[in-house]
Every structure is written in C-alpha cells, then in structure tokens.
From TrEMBL:
Residues 94-126 are annotated as: Disordered. The lineage of its organism: Bacteria, Bacillati, Actinomycetota, Actinomycetes, Kitasatosporales. This is Class I SAM-dependent methyltransferase. One of its GO terms (biological process) is methylation. Its EC number is 2.1.1.-. Keywords: Methyltransferase, Transferase. Gene3D superfamilies: Vaccinia Virus protein VP39.
C-alpha cells in the first residue's frame, strides 16, 4: 500500500492572531482528533475499506483517519493546505524516519512499519492514475463554521476529477444541536467573536448541509448515517486545549484575547464535568455517502 501526503491549495479559515499553530496542531493530534474515531470506523466498515481501496483524504489533518485506512490495507493520499503543522504530524505518523521530499522510505515498527510513501509538493494531476481514487473522504465536520460548506465545495471541485466513476465520496457534519452537548460550549465562540465584523464563527448545523454540498458538486447521494462521537477528556485543561485546537475559537481570540476565551470556555465546560474531574459531552455526527456519476 502506498500512502501519499500532499498539500492542497485551497482557501480555508485564516489562523487567528496570538495562536501558536504548532501547539494547536499537537493538541489536535494528541487530544481532539481521536474523538472522531467512531466516525472513521463506521464509514470504513460500511464501505469495506481494504486492499482494493485507493483513498483520497481531504483536509487530512494529522493523519489519524489515513493511518486507520492504511492499517486495513488501503492505499491512501492525504491533502491539506489549511495547516502545514498538522500535515507535518501526519508525516510523522505515516512516514516516520522519512525526511520531507524523500520517497519510498520505510518507517519504524508496528503499524508504521507497514506503510511506505511518496511525498509530493502538489496534488496529483488529473489522469495521473487512470483508475482514479475509489474513495474520497472529507471527515472534517461541516456545520461548525459559517461558510464551511462553501469551502468544502471548493475542495471537492479540485478532488472529484481525480476519482473514478462510481467512486464513493464521504462528507461529514455535526449532528442536530440538540443531540450535540458540545453545541452549548461552541456558542461561546460566537458570543465572544461578535465584535469582529465578518468573523467566521460557529453556527448550528442544518439538516441538509451535507446534501446541499453533494448536490452542488454534482454527486448522487447513496446513503447516510449517524454516529455517536462523545467528546471525553481527562480534565478541564485537556478539554480546553482540545476544543481550542479545532480552530472554532480563533475568531473569538482575535476579538478578545486568549485568556478571556480560556476563562469563558472553562466556565461553559463546568456543567459537563464529572465527579472524578473528567469532562464528558455526548455528540452525534452525520455522514453522507455520495457517488461520482
């Protein structure tokens, strides 16, 4: 199997001032990204991801979903221009001991030893692989930032020419706010960012978000599902760091300051603390499977 990590050139939310991108990327990788593992597993099980799968992961972040697919035997390609720091962590996971720009080097032990890779600076050109990708995933949930569905549409416009006819395209989004305990916490981001004109802040998900994106991209819906993805943290500090790593609070930090956001975020999390100090928030995420015509 041949995982490939490449950067995708597309517009995305600008990093907020006074945010350390490297620290945020590490928090995402170590704390937050695992919260979506049930979503990855449900999709891979439903689509029987395995050695015959050629997967293109959009906004692959620090690469956990890619690693899980690779462990099933899939050939995976990851693209992400939004965070070079997250992409560097994905490289560490999938291509350990491989200097940037080197190809075909083998990794270390365990799961990593089963992956080899070729790195490229740009997305593969259409027609490079005549067979095309059999699966395109966009696991970063939409319905979190105003305008995020439009950004996903731009990504799909670039990616779909690389997919074969009939390939599955998986879109993911937040579930109904009433079924996502984290929604009440994310409202802090909107409240604090109000002074920033035009700031891209959190918004409640809409029922047809994913279907609208698929329709605009010319995809044919072929099933959907809901997956429980509870957010569980060892403590309040871990919860704050994990949620900040999503980028959903960056506009709030720009409008106020990091300390103020930390304080109000911690206060919003208090109702979700358990007697042992852990933080637990049940959530439901949606996914839509569509097909390339």
């Amino acid at each position: 199997m041949t995982p490939t990590l490449v950067r995708q050139h597309t517009s995305h939310a600008d990093s907020a001032a006074r945010v350390d991108p490297s620290a945020r990327a590490r928090d995402w990788s170590e704390i937050q990204e695992r919260m979506l593992v049930p979503l990855y597993e449900a999709v891979y099980d439903r689509l029987d991801v395995g050695p015959a799968t050629r997967l293109l992961g959009l906004r692959c972040g620090s690469g956990l979903a890619l690693l899980m697919a690779a462990s099933r035997g899939a050939a995976v390609t990851g693209v992400d221009s939004a965070s070079p720091e997250r992409l560097a962590l994905a490289r560490e996971r999938l291509l350990p001991d491989t200097p940037p720009g080197r190809a075909g080097s083998r990794g270390g032990s365990g799961t990593r030893a089963r992956t080899t890779a070729r790195l490229a600076a740009d997305p593969p050109a259409a027609g490079t692989d005549p067979a095309g990708y059999t699966l395109v995933t966009a696991f970063e949930p939409i319905g979190g930032l105003a305008g995020d569905s439009e950004g996903l549409g731009e990504l799909l416009a670039d990616a779909l020419p690389l997919a074969g006819r009939g390939a599955a395209v998986v879109l993911a989004g937040w579930g109904p706010p009433e079924r996502c305990a984290t929604s009440s916490v994310l409202r802090v981001a909107t409240k604090l960012a109000d002074p920033v004109c035009g700031a891209r802040t959190w918004r409640p998900s809409r029922r047809d978000d994913l279907e609208e994106v698929a329709a605009r991209a010319g995809l044919k819906p072929d099933g959907s599902g809901r997956v429980a993805c509870p957010f569980g943290y060892a403590g309040l500090d871990s919860a704050v760091r994990g949620l900040l790593s999503t980028g959903l609070f960056d506009a709030a930090i720009t409008a106020t300051d990091a300390k103020q956001v930390d304080k109000e975020l911690a206060e919003a999390l208090h109702p979700h603390r358990r007697p042992d100090g852990t933080v637990w928030m049940p959530n439901v995420f949606r996914y839509l499977i569509a097909r390339v015509p």
